[in-house]
């Protein structure tokens, strides 16, 4: 039996950061990749090359393909799935990596409906209906005997339960994604499709981030028991554990990648 059977992960939102780290980690483990990206063709090609090099360095022979799409557009989502199936033939794992676009803070009492709708569409709506589309394809492939025990992972954030009145749309969108995980886990259990949420805390965006200095201070003061910034590799390792069947009797599970922030300690 092949020690490293053909396994395909579809990863959305790969423009760098967590999505890219997940892609590289899975490539090292021998997963073929279909990458959704919104970056330039040149940047996407660089990510493909890096993933292929990571796989080769670990003695893995994989395929990697990438495509651009607006996940908020139903037609684009369908086209993305068609391209994934044309390139890879199957999807064993979906990794949703929806990261909030940079936005200026807006006080809750001054929030407009357009602000709210834009964030919900870009983050929650796009992710929910992408997941629905891929979940239906996974069900089809399971029933056809093409794949076994597929899984869906959504990279979320502590905004799912942490109030930030200057970023209300982000909080609402992330809370929606958390319920999305529970709903899909409930609906897909009969097909052996496991669903997980990775709830990420303070993730370093580099010293150029205007909030970096403030959170440096809070981390030093102990806002998290583990007194360091989170890193994209921390997220990638958690996805790897799921990818490598380390959590087969868990679904609807929230895995906190937050240095202990969720403890809400006094």
What's the layout of helices and strands?
Blueprint lengths: L7 E4 L5 H12 L3 E6 L3 H17 L6 E5 L5 H15 L4 E4 L16 H31 L7 E7 L10 H21 L5 E7 L11 H10 L10 H12 L9 E5 L9
Parallel strand pairs: 1-2, 1-4, 2-3, 4-5, 5-6, 6-7
Helix pairs in contact: 1-2, 1-7, 3-4, 4-5
Can you summarize this structure?
The chain contains seven helices and seven strands, in the order E-H-E-H-E-H-E-H-E-H-E-H-H-E.
What can you tell me about this protein's structure?
By secondary structure, the chain is an alpha/beta fold. The protein has a single domain, classed as NAD(P)-binding Rossmann-like Domain (Rossmann fold, 3-Layer(aba) Sandwich), CATH 3.40.50.720. The protein is 44% helix and 14% strand. The protein has seven helices and seven strands. It has helices at residues 17-28, 41-57, 74-88, 113-143, 168-188, 212-221, 232-243, and strands at 8-11, 32-37, 64-68, 93-96, 151-157, 194-200, 253-257. The protein is globular, with a radius of gyration of 18 Å. The mean pLDDT is 93.
List keywords for this structure.
alpha/beta, Rossmann fold, seven-stranded parallel sheet, 7 helices, about 270 residues
């Amino acid at each position: 039996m092949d020690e490293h059977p053909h396994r395909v992960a579809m990863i959305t939102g790969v423009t760098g950061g967590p999505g890219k780290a997940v892609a590289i980690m899975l490539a090292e483990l021998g997963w073929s990749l279909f990458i959704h990206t919104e970056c330039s063709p040149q940047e996407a090609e660089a990510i493909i090359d890096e993933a292929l090099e990571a796989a080769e360095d670990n003695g893995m022979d994989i395929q990697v393909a990438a495509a651009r799409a607006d996940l908020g557009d139903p037609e684009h989502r369908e086209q993305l799935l068609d391209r994934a199936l044309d390139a890879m033939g199957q999807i064993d794992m979906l990794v949703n990596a929806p990261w909030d676009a940079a936005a200026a803070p807006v006080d809750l009492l001054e929030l407009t409906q357009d602000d709210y709708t834009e964030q919900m569409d870009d983050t929650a709506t796009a992710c929910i209906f992408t997941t629905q589309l891929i979940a239906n394809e996974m069900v089809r492939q399971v029933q056809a005997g093409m794949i076994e025990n597929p899984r869906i992972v959504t990279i979320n954030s502590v905004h799912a339960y942490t109030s930030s009145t200057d970023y209300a749309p982000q909080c609402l969108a992330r809370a929606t994604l958390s319920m999305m995980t529970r709903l899909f886990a409930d609906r897909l259990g009969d097909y052996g499709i496991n669903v997980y949420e990775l709830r990420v805390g303070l993730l370093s965006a580099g010293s150029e981030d205007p909030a970096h200095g403030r959170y440096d201070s809070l981390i030093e003061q102990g806002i998290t028991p583990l007194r360091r910034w989170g890193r994209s590799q921390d997220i990638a390792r958690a996805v790897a554990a799921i990818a490598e069947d380390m959590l087969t009797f868990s679904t609807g599970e929230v895995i906190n990648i937050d240095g202990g922030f969720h403890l809400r300690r006094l």
